[in-house]
Amino acid sequence: MTLTAARPAAVGASPSPLSLVLTLARFEGRQMLTHPVLCVGAIAAAGMAVFELREQAPVLNRVSVTLAWTMLPLAVVVTLFAGSAVLRAKGKSDADPPVVAPMAMGQRVGGIILGLLWPAGVALLIQSCVLIWIFARNPVTTLAWTELLAGPLYVIFAGALGASLTRWFPHPATPVLAVLVLGALMIAIPYDQAEWGRTIGPEWLMPLAWPQDIIPYEVAFRPAGRHFIYLVSLVLVLSGLSMLSRARFGWAVLSVGLVGAAITGLSQLGPIPESRRIAAMDRLVGDDADLTCETHNGVRYCAMRGYEGWIEQWAETTRPVLEAAPTSAIEGIEIRQYPVHNTSLLDGDEMTYNDWWWFISAYDDYAERGAVAVGSMLADWEGLGWVAGLGPTVVGCEPWSECPGEAQRVAVLWLAVQYPSIQSNTVDDPTWGTEYAAVADCMIKELWSKPDSASIVLDNWNALTASETSYKDAGAILGVSVPTGYDENGVLVGGCP
Amino acid sequence: MTVKLSEVHKHYGSVRALDGVDLTLETGITGLLGPNGAGKTTLLRCLATVLAPDAGQIDVLGFDPDQPRERTEIRRRIGYLPQEPGFYRNFTCFDFIDYLAILKEHVDRTERHAEVRRVLDLTGLSDKSTTKIRKLSGGMRRRLALAQSLLGSPGFLILDEPTAGLDPELRFRFRELVTELAADRIVLLSTHQTEDVAAICDRVIVIDAGRVRFDGTPAQLIEVAAGKVWLSDDRPTTARITWRTATGEHRAVGEPPEGARLIEPTIEDGYLMLVGVAALTDETEAA
After folding, report:
1. Which 3 state secondary structure label does DSSP give A394?
2. DSSP letters spanning A140-206
3. pLDDT at A281 (0 to 100)
4. Between 20 and 30 A from B274 (CA), which of A188, A230, B47, B118?
5. Residue A362 — pLDDT band, cuts 50, 70, 90?
6. CB contact, 8 Å: A102 with chain B?
7. For residue A414, is pLDDT > 60?
8. Stretch A398-421: mean pLDDT
9. pLDDT range class, residue A285, cuts 50, 70, 90
């Protein structure tokens, strides 16, 4: 100790609450940034982001970006930090020095919450780096800046949750409890909702939820601007709750947050208009400049950026299908790549969404789907999921064998079985078509056994693919039997004739 | 610049921690003595606005701690060293003081950091500013706690056992420091170290069972035991308190017998005369 003491300073005017809060925010932010645990959380978040987004080409899956659940490790760390900081600010006992400090508790919590901007900056940095890495691969997409802020917002949301809970339930276990609440909000509840197939509703009001009725969801996610404001409002609600005191500021923040959350939350309810989905699709792939097209054997193939090298493989995949179709059906056809984010196959329902965005891929199983898709296009058939599944068909009109347009299924399947692997898995399989196969499957199996089947189909192509042609008509045209029909479970009665 | 307490009462259940305390503190160092459980810490916590009294009036530097706004004004003007302050083990010394400086509304970064360095320097912790608190010894932590109480050069300094855990050299330096500080502010010092009180306090208050038993100068407290302290070869049976000294003689405080070998009393003798056996037990525990 030195032996000299300074003169006491006169107590001047107290600083403004805002400057106090900002000063504490800088301190708390620096404490968080320099803590080793935050580094661990940031590395984990970056790792998850890379893992989740590594195949984001050619289309950027905006769900993955917007949900930003990859920031969860960082959010967990920040939740614990914020809760601990609130406990520290309150003082462990009434003998703690902070207890007799003049700064109001609401201001202290405000400083902690504003300090969350520092780890949120880390989240922004991680997300930006990952997106730069993705965009370096030239994906076909556009990205709203509000989506880019989703990750940082989740980090702030998590911290505000930890601060709010700990403010009103000050216990060392509360930050851990806040992490559990965060996990429930961001993972468990949305997952449960999706698992049980519940309709859109409460999950839209959650900070993180899986959209269930948007197809294709990777390009038409939530209205980004509104959801951004919604998340900001949620943060304001939590901040307001944690800053409540005699001063009006906390109440004002809470009120603004509640109003904002209510308006933007409600505005997210309800189905997404079809026009918006199409607009989203158009925004993504509507510009032909994004496609590279090449013509092979008279057919134009168009691939998205980064997939140009696959066109030859697609041409090879579709060649047997195209060769089996009449020249008139092939004329002017253009086969475009379906816009899926990582080339994985979507459900049949999703493939029917837009009948001119055919999915084509050179991958093993996907190639079969591609063959079926091209066959459907050539036969002018929109019921793609049916053929792709090769399962039983329940006809929606009576008598089922006379429903118009059903013969197109036979035409599609005829073209599809030209593809070797479909052929070996269907008509070459002795068990195929005996029990659970559909009517068209049985007819094709019988047709396949005829030596002049190709010419029969080609000669009668127009009649077979006409919109009024039924199964019964197709049987007569092709000279094959039509199965008896289906039982109440959709199983073909007696198998193939 | 005064601190006033009028008929202040504070109960914990059936225990009377403060029982009608009337005091006025002015510039200078006031020592607060009393056995364990006498109400010293309760009194300090009431003055530090941590506790509200059950009855009575407190006026700290012209502000009423019952009023929220005035309580804040008091907090802006006091420095409080709790008996057992909480520390944040992962903070460095600098961060700890810096954090508390922010809570004490030191906004300007340059000035605040200068102030942090000043109080660390005052308490001899300059070279430990980047050391984590968990690595500090008990004595160093005590100095760190003292450093935070000095932030902003408060007009009223409340120190609860400030020299506990300090080695003799540091205690000496602490006395020097507090003497310097007290030139133009009120310092209330609660301690079991009667030597500290004798060395630096202008005034001493003895409190026992929540009541003020003595209020005067250290010399007056010594005077309480004048003619009542003696040495004896054998343990005297009539003494109020007696203990064996290093020379093998017995030092006794109380009513001396005829022909007793009277000696000069100390402030401790005066204190013992006032609070008797309770204080002796307390001293033994402290040792």
Report:
1. coil
2. S----HHHHTHHHHHHHHHHHHHHHHHHHS--TTHHHHHHHHHHIIIIIHHHHHHHTTPPSSGGGGS
3. 59
4. B47
5. very low
6. yes
7. yes
8. 82
9. low
Q: Is A6 on the interface with B (CB under 8 A)?
A: yes
Band of residue A289 on the pLDDT scale cut at 50, 70, 90? low
Crossing angle (nearest 10°) for helices A150-168 and A224-243: 20
**What's the pLDDT band for B75 if we cut at 50, 70, 90?**
very high
CB contacts under 8 A, A 104-123 vs B, are 104, 108, 111
Backbone angles phi, psi at A2, to 5 degrees: -85, 170
Chain B residues with CB under 8 Å of A98 CB are: 100, 103
- Amino acid A471: pLDDT: 86
Name the residue among B150, B126, B160, B154 with its Cα closest to residue B46.
B160
B102 CA: distance to closest CA in chain A (Å): 6
Report the run of H or E that residue A424 belongs to, with start and end. helix A420-425
Secondary structure class of B6 (helix, strand, coil): strand
Q: In angstroms, rounded to a whole number, what is the distance separating the alpha carbons of residues B238 and B35?
A: 23
What is the ipTM score, two decimals?
0.84
- Give me the torsion for CA of B142, B148, B151, B154, rounded to 10°: -70
Beta strands in B127-185 (DSSP E): 156-160
pLDDT, tens only, B270-284: 988 888 755 444 444
Q: Does B95 sit within 8 Å of A5, measured CB to CB? A: no
Closest CA to A46 of A25, A79, A77: A77
Contact B173, B121 (CB under 8 A): no
With a CB cutoff of 8 Å and minimum separation 6, the contacts of B259 are none
Q: Is residue A54's pLDDT more than 90?
A: no
Chain B contact probe: residue of A2, A19, A30, A32 with most B CBs at under 10 A:
A2
pLDDT at B127: 93
Q: What is the structure's pLDDT at A387?
A: 39
Bridge partners of residue B243, in order along the sequence: B251
Distance of CA A319 to the CA centre of its chain: 33
Sequence-distant (≥ 6) Cβ neighbours of residue A475 within 8 angstroms: A443, A481, A482
CB A246 within 8 A of CB B72: no
Are the C-beta atoms of residues A341 and A218 closer than 8 Å to each other?
yes
The label of the residue with tokens 């339930």 reads: A169
Higher pLDDT, A380 or B71: B71
Chain B residue whose CA is closest to A85:
B88
* CA contacts within 13 A on the Cβ side of B66: 9
Burial class (CB in 10 A: 0-12, 13-18, 19+), A56: buried
The DSSP H or E segment spanning B21 is strand B15-25
